[in-house]
Specification:
Elements lengths: L2 H6 L6 H13 L9 H13 L9 E8 L13 H13 L3 H8 L2 E9 L27 H9 L6 E6 L5 E7 L2 H8 L8 H8 L3 E6 L3 H15 L15 E4 L7 E4 L8 E3 L5 H14 L20 H4 L13 H15 L3 H17 L3 H20 L10 E8 L4 E9 L2 E10 L7 H13 L8 E3 L7 H12 L4 E3 L4 H39 L7 E10 L2 E11 L2 E2 L5 E4 L9 H17 L11 E5 L2 H13 L6 E6 L5 E5 L5 E3 L4 H36 L6 H11 L2 H6 L2 H5 L4 H21 L1
Parallel strand pairs: 1-2, 9-12, 12-13, 14-18, 18-19
Antiparallel strand pairs: 3-4, 3-5, 6-7, 6-8, 9-10, 10-11, 14-15, 15-16, 15-17, 19-20, 20-21
Helix pairs in contact: 2-3, 9-16, 10-14, 13-14, 18-19
Length: 753
Amino acid sequence: MTLEEAIAKIKPLDHNAMEIAQKRWDSIAKPLHSLGKLETLLIQIAGITGNAEVDLSRRGLIAMCADNGVVEEGVTQTGQEVTAIVAENFLKYDTSVGVMCKQNHAEIFPVDMGMVTDTKVRTDHKIAYGTQNMTKGPAMTREQLKERVRRLPMQPGVYMHKDKTGRVIYVGKAKKLKNRVSQYFQENSSRNEKTRRMVSQVDHFDTIFVSTEFEALILENSLIKQHMPRYNILLKDDKGYPFVRLGTEHYPRFTMASKPADDNALYFGPFGGRNETRAAIDAICAAFRLPTCSRKFPRDIGKERPCLNHHMGRCDAFCRGTPDEDEYMRRIGQAEELLNGHYRRLTRALREEMEQEAAALHFEQAAALRDRIRAIEVLGKRQKVIAGICADTDIWGVYRGALKCGSAVLHIEDGSVTGRDLNLFAAPQDESEQMILSALLPQYYLNKSVLPREILLPCEIEGAAELAQILTERAGRKVTLHVPQRGEKAELLAMAQRNAREDVERVTTAQERENRTLTQLAGMLSLPEPPERMESYDISNTGASDIVASMVVYEGAKPKKSAYRRFKIKSLSAHPDDYASMEEVLTRRIQRYLDGDEKFSPLPDVMLIDGGITHAGVAERVCAQMHVHVPIFGMVKDDRHRTRALVTAQGREIDLHAAPNVFALIGQIQEETHRFAITFHHESHSRSSTRSALDRIPGVGKVRAQALLKTFKSVKAIREADIFALERVLPKDAAASVYLHFHGETDEKEEKM
C-alpha cells in the first residue's frame, strides 16, 4: 500500500463505536475509569477502526535509525558505530525492544533515516550519511541540503525550515515539493531580503507529503499555529465571530465566548465583532438591572454593601438577597427572549405586567417595569443580533505601513456593517499584498465555527480555489472568494482599506518613538543593534529570612509580564548578602536556559542589575563562568532613588540625563523591577508569617496547617471558624487545640468579667 492510499483510507472517528466501547468498559466489574489512559486509547482505537470489538492482533513497531554528530559532545554513552549494530539487531529481535515485541507478537520495521554506514536495514528513506556536530557548525552542509532537495518527489506537501537549534523558522506548502524547496537553495539575486535572511539561517528541513493541495493548505495552517515561525506572516489574535454565553451555574452571568463549546451553556450569536458583543452584554445587563460586578452568588450575598452599579441605577443589588434568586432567573429568562430576537413578545408581556402592578396601586414597581420596557425597545431596535445564522459578507482591507502591516475585516449582515476586526502584525516591506493575504486568510478562517457566505478581497490570492473548497465543506454551503472591480462592493472594499490604513498609522507614531529610544540606547551602550529583549534583576529581603529576587523582562520598550520570573534564595542561611543572592539568581537563570527550558529562552540582549559596579561585576563573572555573553550594566541611583546612570563592570559610567527618553525608559524598568520584587517579598513574608502563626499551635504540623489554609484561605477565617467547621478538616483533638489557641484566652477574660 502506498502512502497516498493509506491517507485516503483515513476517516473521521466513529463516535457510535466509541460510545459502545465506552459503555462496555463502564459495565466491566472494576472501578470506573480505573485503567486511565489505557481505556482512553482503547476507546479511541474503536473510533479509528469503526468496531467496538477492538482487535490488536496485528501490531508493529517502526524504528527510525540515524546518527547525529553531536554525540561528540558526550550526550550519549555510545558513539555512532553502535547505531548500525543496534539497527541490524532489530532485524533479529536481539534488542530489549525486540524481546518486548516478541512477547507481544509485534513486528519490528527498522528504517535507515541517516546512519553513517549502510546496513541490511532498508535505506530507501535515507536522508544523508549522518549529520555534523551542530555545536561546531551546521548539522548538514549546503551540498547535503541540495542533495536532499534533489531526492524530493514531485508531489504536494508541506516543508519546515529549521535553524541549528532545531527551531522551526518557516513553514510553507507546495504543489510540487521538489520545485518549491529547491528554489531556496539556488543562487538567485531576485530573492527578497526576507528570504535571503531566512535561507542563511536554515540548518536543515523536514517535509510532510500529502495527497492534495487541499490537504497541504490545512496542514500548513496547523503547523504555523503550532510553531509560530518567525519568518511566516503571523495572525496572532484569532478573533472571528464572538458569541454571548450564558452559564449553567447558580445566578448565571452573560459573558463573551470566541466559539460555542459542548458545556451545556447557552450561546447566542454570532455577533459582528468583539466590541459589539461587549456592548450587547452591557446593554442587556443594564436593561434588566443585572449584576456585572465580580461578586459570586450566592456565596457573596449579604457580605458587602451594594457596589456603585446599584447607586447608578444599573443593578438591583442582588447581593443583598432581595430581589431573590427566583426574580434573578426570571430576568435571565427575559434576557434570553431578547437575545433570541423576540423583543416584541417580551415587551408585550412586560407591558401586561406593568398594567397589573399599576392596577394594584404598586406604582413604584410599575414605574420600574416601564423603564425596563423602554430600554428593551431601544435595545431591540438598535442591536442587530444574528441568531443561529452566518454573516453575509466579510470584506478585507490590507495596508503596509513603514513599521507595521495591518488588516481590517468588515462584517456585513443584510447590507449593514455589524462589526470589524483590526489586526496588526510584522511583515517585511518586500511582501506583496497578495502574499500577505494568502498567508492571513487560512489562519483567520480555518478554525472558525462560523463562516461568511462571501469574502471580498482587494486582489487575487494563491490557493483561492482550495481555500474556498475547504470553507464550503466546513460551512455546509457555498463560500465564495471574490475581487470586486466596481459598484457598491468595491466601495465597501475601499472602506476596509481605509480602516486598515488608519489603524496602522495610529500605532506607527508610537512605534517610531519607541524605535528611536531603543536606537539611542543602543548607541549609548555601544550595542551592535537596538535591544529586542532586556532583563532587569533586583533583590529584596528582611534580615536573613525571606530573601527573594525578581526578573523583569522588556520586549523593546514594553514589559512582557508573561516572561517575569521570581526566585527564592536557597543558598543563604545566616546573613543576607545581595552579591551572593544575585550570583545565585543569575546562575539559576542561565542554567535553566542552558538546560533548554523554554521559559528562560532566549537570553536577553542586555541585563540590567539593580546596583552599581560591584553588582555588575558579579553578573559578568557568572556569565563568564557559564560561557555565555550578555552585555551587563548596573543601575546607579541618585539621591531620589532614580537611575541616573548605567555602569559596566569595568567602571565605565553612562549618564542618562542627556537623553530624556532613555532616562524615562530605564527609570520605568527600574521601578517595575523594584515593584515586582517588593510585591513578591511581601507575599512571601506574609506566607511565612501565616505559617509561623499556625506552627505555634500544638498538634498542628505542616500537613494540617496546609489543610486548614486550603479550606479557610486565611488565618483570619481560621480564627473566626467554629469548632464544628474545624472538626470537618482536622481530628477532634487538633481542632480543639486550634480553637483554644485563638479563643481560649479571650474566653477566660470574658468569664472573669
